Amino acid sequence: MGSLGNDAHEASSLFNLNPLDPEEFRRQGHMIIDFLADYYRDIEKFPVRSQVQPGYLRKRLPKSAPYNPESIETILQDVQNEIVPGITHWQSPNYFAYFPSSGSIAGFLGEMLSTGFNVVGFNWMSSPAATELESIVMDWFGKMLKLPNSFLFSGNGGGVLQGTTCEAILCTLTASRDQMLNKIGRDNFRKLVVYGSDQTHCALQKAAQIAGIDPKNFRAVATNKSTEFGLSPVALEAAIQADLEAGLVPFFLCATVGTTSITAVDPIGPLCDVVKEYGIWVHIDAAYAGSACICPEFRHFIDGVEKADSFSLNAHKWFFTTLDCCCLWVKDPSALVKALSTNPEYLRNKATETRQVIDYKDWQIALSRRFRSLKLWMVIRSYGVANLRNYLRSHVKMAKQFEGLLVADNRFEVVVPRTFAMVCFRVAPSAMAITFNEETNVNELNAKLLESMNVSGKVYMTHAVVGGVYMIRFAVGTTLTEERHVSAVWKVVQEHTNTILNSYQ
Amino acid sequence: MGSLGNDAHEASSLFNLNPLDPEEFRRQGHMIIDFLADYYRDIEKFPVRSQVQPGYLRKRLPKSAPYNPESIETILQDVQNEIVPGITHWQSPNYFAYFPSSGSIAGFLGEMLSTGFNVVGFNWMSSPAATELESIVMDWFGKMLKLPNSFLFSGNGGGVLQGTTCEAILCTLTASRDQMLNKIGRDNFRKLVVYGSDQTHCALQKAAQIAGIDPKNFRAVATNKSTEFGLSPVALEAAIQADLEAGLVPFFLCATVGTTSITAVDPIGPLCDVVKEYGIWVHIDAAYAGSACICPEFRHFIDGVEKADSFSLNAHKWFFTTLDCCCLWVKDPSALVKALSTNPEYLRNKATETRQVIDYKDWQIALSRRFRSLKLWMVIRSYGVANLRNYLRSHVKMAKQFEGLLVADNRFEVVVPRTFAMVCFRVAPSAMAITFNEETNVNELNAKLLESMNVSGKVYMTHAVVGGVYMIRFAVGTTLTEERHVSAVWKVVQEHTNTILNSYQ
Questions:
Q1: pLDDT 10s digits, A156-184
Q2: Which residues on neighbouring strands pair with residue A159, listed in sequence order?
Q3: pLDDT value at position A355?
Q4: In a domain, A62, yes or no
Q5: What is the pLDDT of residues B63-105, one digit of tens each?
Q6: To bridge A313 with a disulfide, which of A286, B112, B179, B187 should be the other Cys (CB 3.0-4.6 Å)?
Q7: Which one of B43, B45, B50, B83 makes the best mutation probe of the A interface by having the most chain A beta carbons within 10 Å?
Q8: Are residues A326 and A437 in the same domain?
Q9: Residue A414's beta-bridge partner residues?
Q10: Which residues are listed as membrane-spanning (chains A, B) (predicted)?
């Protein structure tokens, strides 16, 4: 820093150190590493789901920012005492809620390097390595998934790292919207129709809202047990036909591999065959289950992807890469660029003008972008394809283990088939007294069971309601989880079920 | 991890360690801290702007992902040898390009904690501390800026951390679009008009494109030297009147405090007065200069903010908080929530239903969100209001120092008034032989000067073209910059100017 202001009062509180002093960075950096290593070591001591009440923190922190600097020691003490109690421990081995976000050492280190370099990689020029590593790693990952060459840079497609699936869907939806509007004219904006199923992630609805699609033209096609809650090509075709007859213009389908509620899989190939003749853009949302497709035994779930236009998965969900890291591949990057590019003078540069480089700012919503590929690169290299497959398989194996325990106990029901590393179960109606046999009461009892387990702090699971059935989701995916944790959870489930069933006698 | 798959070949390459093993985390974490501390210590050894050619990295890295794990030592060696040469060193004290992104130890530590906890804070329930700390810190920061109470939670407004200004603008634009459509009906979508100036950041155009606003209805009102390239309320009113007469519907204005090209300031109060009667939403984009407004002597630049609807700044630009961290305050959070909320069953929870909590997923594009407030909180506490002001003032002082050197040398011209920590200058036409006195040649010479300095690796600056004038932007804001670096840059500028002017003789 240069010499500082003259205000005597303010100068008196001066730190003499530069806020990025290398040796002070070293000292404080080592402190935080030890803090976090201890946190992981001790993580099972904390209740998995935070037990604080709304507003807890406002009571504990000052109303205004401090005027004078505070030491890192004081701040870390406050992290321990005030922040940690309000954290739901997503990295706990007893965390089985939502979809876990699997952290790893390599993912963490990659984020540290990215934060340390702190480059703002909007275009190639602003930090060539950020752009080039991203395109290389996206080709690596694409090959691991056996994506067709048309999704790789070598096949004139390409991949980009976004923050989340919401952004990936919004970008592809905007690109396809503008493609369609160019054909049919902007006067027909209100006729555009988006398709998903009633199991599609809410990201699609949100993206459609933001992109200005008339809410009336958002089709969540109903699914049911006969297709295991996958989107039926027949039902989709019927919906499209009805819309065409009403003079509307179908333009976007989001198909899902591994839905959020129950990891259902939409049949990609047949769905693509249905929409092909209408010029509908197909996006495959494999946010959760896409990672598993690096294992040959799971790859068939994305068969047909070669007919789709774009494909995304969240490496921060089940690929050991910390939040946020959504991988999006597209066959036609120019569609994204046409919809999302702006070229202000202050970003003009020779590299861009030669057209030999990618400027990723035109592939996403934001201009500024972090050097996210570092963490994906470090994860892939640190573990290698071999171990990554093994890690994923170990999660699936643990889910099977839990499924086996449920199946062997006739008080429980596995409600939908387990496909990946998540089991959806409930206390079966048959386990209850006859008066509680109606669906609503069964649902109520299971909701109580889940809440009582979560309140115990020993485990955290969440729920879904599909086809009117309330189910408890047991999602394995946290990196620290071992078989012994699954066994321990099973005990918790049994104990709480006993208590609940007894209370209903 | 549970026990692993049976594939003999894959099992042979197995790491026995869990990928989040606490002691291995500690070992590797300390290695990276030392790597980065050394990087900061040695950063002046590297050319500021990367000197690699397009495609350099593809030649150096394997075409496919490794099958077997690689050691952290190997990977770090590759970071040093292959990645660092492709980095433009945004943290170098000789970096004066674009707007710098000021890193700090506290910002880095906050990002580490956030990555370490790796919570996915979409709603309150998923990690109460993430939501609560964010709302508290946004109130702190709002008070530091003397934002009116109506932008704070205590005044029924509130703040949220987004990734970038692009996202902040897209969210507020979508909220105001839907508010207006509710009044005028969706049939009038094509009549909606967005306003900015020809100096407004391209984020506005991009947001309007994504939100489906007809490109014909995007008004970049021309600015000129008479208002120092600030948006004229008179010109704005004329544009609005013309649109109203054409039957269009004005609904959104983005005013800027500190434009990207030349840090011009739009007159917020008078602009708000103009649009008030039309029900236009006013967003203030203070991405760069907003931070400076924590200093009393700069606060007047946002006078009138009390009449606006939303206000944003990038803490990752000039507030020592690493990328990404955009602070957005709004008066009416319900407008965001109405436009951006989705409420799927799998996220239902008691806390949300009591309406005592904030679910930030409904204030932004994405569902998933990082625990960004940790870094902003740590920055504010580690340095305190006093030092934060002093740091910002020191940057302004260094910019003044550079301006003084330019002014004293009559070969140079400060092209537009310096307002914050950026100086826009050029070699003056008068310094050149008479035949080169035409504007295009003056521009050409200055472009050559800039490129020759950047190629030297000693400094990195970028350019702008405003009112037909090509200017070199000298933006102070990198944390490690000291007065001695500014003096050194001045020597570089003089040497290269001498060479260029001589070559034109």
A1: 999 999 999 999 999 999 999 999 999 99
A2: A329
A3: 79
A4: yes
A5: 999 999 999 999 999 999 999 999 999 999 999 999 999 999 9
A6: A286
A7: B83
A8: no
A9: A425
A10: none
Q: A62 with A196, same domain?
A: no
pLDDT tens digits, one per residue of B250-267: 999 999 999 999 999 999
Reply yes or no on whether the pLDDT at A436 is more than 90.
no
The number of distinct structural domains making up chain A is 3
* Chain B 224-253, residues with CB within 8 Å of chain A CB atoms: none
Q: Judge if B436 and B321 occupy the same domain.
A: no
Cβ distance of A13 and B386 shorter than 8 Å: yes
Q: Same structural domain for residues B170 and B251?
A: yes
Contact by Cβ (8 Å): A390, A399? no
pLDDT for res B439: 65
In a domain, residue B240? The reply is yes
CA–CA gap between residue A246 and residue A240 (Å, rounded): 10
Phi then psi for residue B357, to 5 deg, are -125, 165
Phi, psi of B40 (to 5 degrees): -65, -40
Query: What is the structure's pLDDT at A15?
Result: 53
Report how far apart the first and last C-alpha atoms of chain B are (Å, whole number): 73
Residue B483, chain A, CB below 8 Å: the answer is yes
Let me know the angle formed at the C-alpha of A91 by A85 and A96, rounded to the nearest 5 degrees: 100
Are residues A168 and A306 part of one domain?
Answer: yes
Residue range(s) defining the domain that contains residue B227: 120-370
Looking up residue A24, the CATH number of its domain turns out to be: 1.20.1340.10
* Residue whose C-alpha is closest to residue A137's, from B79, B67, B62: B62
Name the B residues in 415-444 with CB < 8 Å from any A CB: none
Backbone angles phi, psi at A108, to 5 degrees: -65, -45
Is the CB of B167 less than 8 angstroms away from the CB of A346? no
Domain boundary among B332, B350, B370: B370
Q: Which residue has the higher pLDDT, B415 or B432?
A: B415
Domain edge (last residue) among B315, B340, B370: B370
